[in-house]
């Protein structure tokens, strides 16, 4: 599990950190650049964790059964349930994934 310091960063500082992170990520226009930056910034555990979270929401939107998601991604049904709830409450990731679902490159990605 990824660890974070027990000492909390001030909210103002955290907002600036998120803004900086957004600036870096939003300026990536090529997959190769994105991959390079992600590999420099994230550990393999963090990359897997984020990828699984996105995949869970994607598969839930495609109406894939919990058992299949759990088996393929090696996650618990509790984790799937948590992200099902997040998907239903949130809108940002859902909007992005809805646009991607029709994309031919990933249309049958998990088939």
Overview features:
single chain; mainly alpha; globular; 111 residues
Q: Helix count?
A: 6
How does the helix and strand content classify structurally?
A: mainly alpha
* Overall 3D shape: globular
Instruction: Give a count of the beta strands, DSSP E runs of length 2 or more.
Output: 0
Largest sheet: none
User: How big is the Rg?
Assistant: 16 Å
Give an account of the 3D structure.
Helix content is 68%, strand content 0%. The chain is globular, with a radius of gyration of 16 Å. It is built from six helices and no strands. It has 111 residues and is mainly α. The protein has helices at 11-26, 31-41, 44-61, 66-73, 77-89, 92-101. The mean pLDDT is 85. The longest helix has 18 residues, at 44-61.
Structure in a nutshell:
By secondary structure, the chain is mainly alpha-helical. 68% of the residues lie in helices and 0% in strands. The protein is globular.
List the helices and strands and how they pair.
Blueprint: H1 11-26, H2 31-41, H3 44-61, H4 66-73, H5 77-89, H6 92-101
């Amino acid at each position: 599990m990824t660890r974070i310091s027990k000492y909390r960063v001030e909210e103002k500082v955290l907002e600036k950190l998120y803004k900086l992170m957004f600036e870096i990520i939003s300026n990536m226009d090529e997959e190769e650049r994105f991959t390079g930056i992600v590999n420099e910034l994230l550990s393999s555990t963090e990359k897997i964790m984020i990828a699984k979270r996105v995949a869970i929401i994607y598969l839930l939107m495609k109406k894939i059964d919990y058992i299949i998601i759990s088996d393929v991604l090696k996650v618990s049904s509790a984790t799937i349930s948590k992200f099902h709830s997040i998907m239903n409450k949130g809108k940002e990731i859902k909007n992005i994934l809805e646009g991607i679902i029709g994309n031919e490159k990933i249309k049958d990605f998990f088939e």
